[in-house]
Amino acid sequence: MHTKTKNNNWALITGASSGFGEEFARQYAAQGHSLVLVARRKDRLESLAESLRSNYQVEVIVEGVDLSDLESVRQLHQRVQERGITIDVLINNAGYGLQGGFQDANLNDALGMVQLDIESLTAVTHLFAADMRAKGSGKILLVSSLLAHVAVESFAVYAAAKAYVLRLGEALHREMKKDGITVTTLCPGLSDTGFAAAAQMHVTPLLKLLMMKPQPVVKAGIRALNAGRISVVPGLPNKFMALFIWASPRWLHQAVFAQVMSPKPISKIQGGKAS
Q1: N-terminal to C-terminal alpha carbon distance within the chain
Q2: Which of 17, 10, 97, 127 lies closest to 58, judged by CA?
Q3: pLDDT attached to residue 268
Q4: Residue 210 in contact with residue 190, Cβ under 8 Å?
Q5: Are 33 and 57 in contact (CB under 8 A)?
Q6: What is the distance between the alpha carbons of residues 228 and 213, in angstroms, rounded to a whole number?
Q7: Which residue of the set 56, 96, 158, 164 is catalytic?
Q8: At what angle do helices 121-135 and 156-175 cross, to 10 degrees?
Q9: Rounded to whole angstroms, how far apart are CA atoms 92 and 14?
């Protein structure tokens, strides 16, 4: 059993029922933070909350919320306010992705990614940042993706949505600094969180080799947020890929990523410069 001194700070974590969200909950609980855990799967949240209370003696509130519904997001914010809680750390982690051709995907699935990854993330950030602004302090971590840096065949909508998250975070990093709020964007590569299975993703041997565990990814995100960094790409291979994207023409890095992430056999790279 772990014992930590409570620091009276509240962290709200979306998508906390599994993957990065669950790991954020564990690491913040280990630091003594009180927690508001948010996800659709309330049964899994309750199980996690019970474990965190037992192991770390922290206060944990569970909120079973469908974040893709904006009215539910507003009601979540209202319930937190009614409890007299001001969120000190917001981990905006909930997201949704699917691999597949744009025209092959169901339209509702594509729009679901836009709704959760863009619209709902924006709403959660806006509502809780207003409370932080009123008290003059706060920390916000937006969870994006390495794919935010590159347009990826078969991940068109997801990569575009995560690019929005990255650019939003970069802009808010500067905009909210004057209000005492730190905004950092975390851009992980493929990680062992269950995302690949949920996204119906074909994991190539190379991707499997590069896959990170969630613990170091989350640790890197928390460290970057506490240091006030604008963004972070965890893991040396992922940093190298981000540098490659930055340094190479679009036709090249788009073609490379398409081959690396495709279930098809690798063939000769062909392409032309993008505008």
Answers
A1: 57
A2: 10
A3: 31
A4: yes
A5: no
A6: 24
A7: 158
A8: 10
A9: 6
CA proximity to 214, closest of 18, 47, 38: 18
Output the CA angle 147-211-254, nearest 5 degrees: 30
Q: State the pLDDT at residue 202.
A: 66
Is 158 marked active-site? Answer: yes
Q: What is the pTM of this model?
A: 0.88
pLDDT score, position 266: 32
Intervals of the chain under pLDDT 50 = 1-4, 264-275
- Residue given tokens 């990814």 in the structure block: 217
The pLDDT assigned to 162 comes to: 95
What one-character-per-residue DSSP string does 34-46 give? Answer: EEEEEES-HHHHH
Please give the pLDDT value at position 260. Answer: 73
Distance of alpha carbon 181 from its chain centroid, rounded? 18
The whole-angstrom separation of Cα 116 and Cα 274 is: 29
Domains, the chain, ranges and CATH?
10-235 (3.40.50.720)
User: Within its chain, how far is the Cα of 50 from the centroid?
Assistant: 24
Total length of the chain: 275
